[in-house]
Amino acid sequence: MATTIALRCAVAAASSSAGRVLALRSARPQNVRTVSTSTKEEVDPQLNGYPQLPFVSNQTLPALGWQDPLLRRNFGDTLHEEDEVLSMWGPDIPPVPPMTATLHFLLAASAFVGFGFLVKNVMLQDAPAVRREYPFSGLVIELGGEENKARAESTEED
């Protein structure tokens, strides 16, 4: 569609006067998205002859040089079949690639967990007092038998 407009402008410019050529050149689209012509892609039968445009968001296009700078498109350009997703009002494109963002998140999470283990196992001081110990295996019988078993008395020195 866009290439046919450019061809029509060139043919009309060749057959008309110099003033008319200048007017047609200024009306020519400035930034034209090319239609995918690779033979590797399968033609979508649901498009029924509608051009198969590349899946590129308008947010990746340069900001200047458009007839409609808000939507970053020229008037008369063929819309993509999924224009609602690829337009400027569609979902934002992430500024950092998803794999890089995942790597950064995992590095930050592992640094946080590593710092927690460092504080707990290396920097934490011992208790300032000796833990309380009860005789007769922690007063098992006095507390009501096996069901209410308290911490067993240890003979090891800490």
Q: How many domains would you count in the coordinates?
A: 3
The secondary-structure element order is HHHHH
β-strand amount: under 5%
User: Helical region count?
Assistant: 5
Head-to-tail CA distance between termini: 84 Å
Number of strands: 0
- Biggest sheet details: none
Rg, rounded, reads 36 Å
**Uncertain runs:** 1-32
Find the structural class using helix and strand composition.
Answer: mainly alpha
| Overall 3D shape | rod-shaped
Overall mean pLDDT: 75
Relative helix content: 25-40%
What does this structure look like?
The protein has three domains: 2-37 and 48-86, no CATH class; 98-124; 130-158, no CATH class. The protein has five helices and no strands. It is an all-alpha fold.
Question: In short, what is this structure?
Answer:
The protein is about 35% helix and about 0% strand. By secondary structure, it is mainly α.
What's the arrangement of secondary structure elements?
Blueprint: H1 2-15, H2 18-27, H3 83-86, H4 98-123, H5 135-139
Helix pairs in contact: 1-2
Pfam families: NDUF_B8
InterPro entries: NDUFB8
Keywords: Membrane, Transmembrane, Transmembrane helix
